[in-house]
Amino acid sequence: MGHSIARRCFRTLVPLAVAALSECGPKPPPQVAPQAAADSVAAAARRDSLAASARRDSLAAVARRDSVAAAGRRDSLATVARAAARADTVRAQVRENVVEEPAPAASGLDSAAAADLATMVQFEFDRSDVGAASAAILDRKLRILQQYPRLALQVSGHCDERGSDEYNLALGERRAAAVKRYLVEHGVAEGRLTIVSYGEERPLDPGHTEEAWARNRRAEFAVTAGARP
Amino acid sequence: MSAARGRAAALAGLLFVAGLAAAARAQDTIPPGGVRVGITYTPGTRPALAVARSGGAPFDSVRAILERDLDFSDQFEILAPPSPPARSGEAPDYRVFRAIGADLLVVLAPAESERAAVEVQLHDVRRGALVRRISVAGGEGPERRWAVHRAADEVVRWVTGRAGIAATRLLFVRNGQIWRVDADGSGLTQVPAAGRPALSPAWAPDGRRIAYTAFVRSGQPIVLQDLASGEREIVPTTEYGLNITPEFSRDGAHLAFAHGTEAGTDVYVYDVARQCCVTRLTVGRFSDNLSPTWSSDGSRLAFISTRAGTPQLYGMDADGGGADVMARFDFGTTGQTNGPSWSPDGQAVAFHREVNGSPQLFVLDVGMRTVRQLTGTGRNEDPTWAPDGRHVCFVSSRSGAQQLWVLDVETGRVRQLTTSGGARLPAWSPRLATP
Description:
The structure holds 2 protein chains of 2 kinds. Chain A is of the alpha+beta class. Mean pLDDT of chain A is 79; it is low at 1-33. Chain A has helices at 2-24, 34-96, 111-118, 132-147, 165-185, 210-216; strands at 121-122, 152-158, 193-199, 218-225. In chain A, α1 packs across α2 (34-96). The two termini of chain A are 19 Å apart. Chain A has 6 helices and 4 strands, in the order αααβαβαβαβ. The radius of gyration of chain A is 28 Å and the shape is globular. Chain B is mostly beta strands. Chain B folds into 2 domains: 41-160, Rossmann fold; 169-428, TolB, C-terminal domain (Neuraminidase). In chain B, a hairpin with a 5-residue loop joins β17 (289-294) and β18. Chain B starts with a helix and ends in a 7-residue tail after the last strand. The chains are: A alpha+beta, B mainly beta. Chain A binds chain B through residues 83, 86-87, 89-91, 93-95, 97-102, 126, 162-167, 169-171, 173-174, 177, 180-181, 195-198, 201, and chain B through 176, 193-197, 199-200, 213-221, 223, 232, 234, 239-242, 244-245, 258, 260-265, 286, 288, 290-291, 304, 306, 310-311, 336, 338-339, 352, 357, 359, 381-382, 424-425.
């Protein structure tokens, strides 16, 4: 994929450069020696071609900027619309007491990639920082997320039973947010990741041992939009 | 008659100082009319009270409820009354009750009015006088029961200047659902609420509405729910993110709660009265600020913050300014502090703090800034104050599973409120006029 883009760009740029040379080159001044004149013609041509390409670049940049801004406007309108729709959804769910989880979206990935995506991240007691072991787990997800740009995830933060019930909801939120931040800092678009905290409400291991607590201090990952449209 | 009056005036004078202190603590400590005749007793001991035996229905059931309510008020030494039962319609033989050491006597008599079932008569045994009559409404079931609770609370008010807490209830969470139970442990009922789990229930001061966090499929909003109709609405802005630990101000005009996003959890206030305007009070980037609880006059909030690392107890003005540490802590050694509840009289904040790996109850004297540990056995957490500012309900594992217990902070007496299933996150109601 990367190769084909480079080839396409090269094919486009070479004829442009040739055209710039033939159209924009000034007449050689008669006073100077032929070799020097030839050099200066080449230099001027290079200069002009650079200037022309700079102009083109800047126009492209403006066009890009405009299109980004337009897309941004579209996005922000879409975001507002999505947010309003979501608020309506939540209100309806409170009215009708809709609590069951939606079925996770089919990831469309092979089983190895799906397993990498689902691997949980663990935390130390009362901590939300992403350690080296967690970073290695997240890096494997990064590769998959980069490979499949339509893939979207929900990160859920969980705690062990030891802290206060209510404080653990905030701590779980902080854990999910830390994981999201790591992925976003490494290039994943923010809109592809949502977070939720379940505090200590959904223990993976019902035990009351150090091992059970360690397993329960985690972030889980659920696919909310698959690899293919 | 005039001698009795003079004595009453003297007693009232004696009680004046105590009355002043009580008045500073809560609005409802001055009885209607402003003058009160009470019982004097040696500081540190409680007046001894007997509820006279009375034969037959409906007296027996009323007597059982009333005696237990008065016992649970922790204001009296409850004495076993001598049998046989006092004959209704006749003045009690005060000598018999003086002999067992009673200061106060409660007698149940047939009501004179047709609409009332029973009349509760309070006698001052030492003076040998009937001092208060309270009629208990007729009817059956919950209404009768509630009327008896109200009568018990009135007896407590007459004696101490502060009404009792028998006519109150608690909300709590069991199996991710909201339940309620009367303060005497009866009337256990599920409240049909949205969400699974539904967490952190809180009472509106009118006792008619509650607020809680509902985990529905697409969010964790704060829900306001009418108890009678079941009608629900959502606090604006809580359709998004994490929304937890709601608490109404004591005038019911505002609701404080914590709203969590990727940038941290902060305390917000919703103007319930105007149904608008959610204001952010804390700005703790990547720190957690939660569990707001109002001072009695609504001018301050206590809350939990991780701004210095572990969760600890802070205070701030109701507009978010003037933040300070409320319960002093030593960095790195003082355990996690959570679950604060500001007492109705404004003088104390109860909370739990980790001690040797288990949460224990503490109470902060707001004026003195001193902290006192209240429990030491098992895990004890999430205290909530009764409207008398003297009892706290909390979650304890002392009997095995997590259950609700009630502690009298003044005497240290503890009783178990719930006995089956798990129970957590209790919230004590205001005094309720009707069941």
